[in-house]
Please model this.
Amino acid sequence: MFTGLVESKIPLVQIFDIGPGRRLVFELGELAHSTDRPVGLGDSIALSGCCLTVVEIDGSQCHFELGSETLSKTKFAELQPGHFVNCERSLRVGDRLGGHFVTGHIDGLGQLTSIRTEGDWRFYEFTAPIALLRQMAPKGSITVDGVSLTLVEADDERFSVALIPHTLAVTTLGELGTGDSVHLETDILAKYIARQLEGIAR
Model:
């Protein structure tokens, strides 16, 4: 479980093809050996919102293996060395919850369609699959590339979010351009409500 509060932007340094899947190696820097919580084998880490398992540690570099299903449902198949992702370690019992509950399971991809700037702020508008849009509501929560955000508007065609300067600076969202794809995870409570409504409709 995660919160959508990004701890660091980390670069992809190596790619290895392994059968139908792929092994990705990321440079975690100081995060790998933090004194309060060093990364260990088997740890779950959210990379741009996708929960992955550490399978090997080489100094400050961590290896993650992605199967064909993960590659087909995410944008990791397009990543190249030098690209950055948002990184968040999983919650520990007793940790403060500053964002919202994030599972690290990607629901689908969205696409950035417009950017509006107001001073140092930016307003992003995205398209997304209709099934995901119907799990969104204004002032509700959405996870975009692993970042917990508050929805400004949401309807059956698009949704929008407002990004403060800090978020733009410390996450990969500040580097997005129109046409770019992003990982989306809707609020877990919205999923349960949608499931209940499906049952009522039947």
User: Anything to note?
Assistant: The helical segments are 68-73, 130-133, 165-170, 188-201.
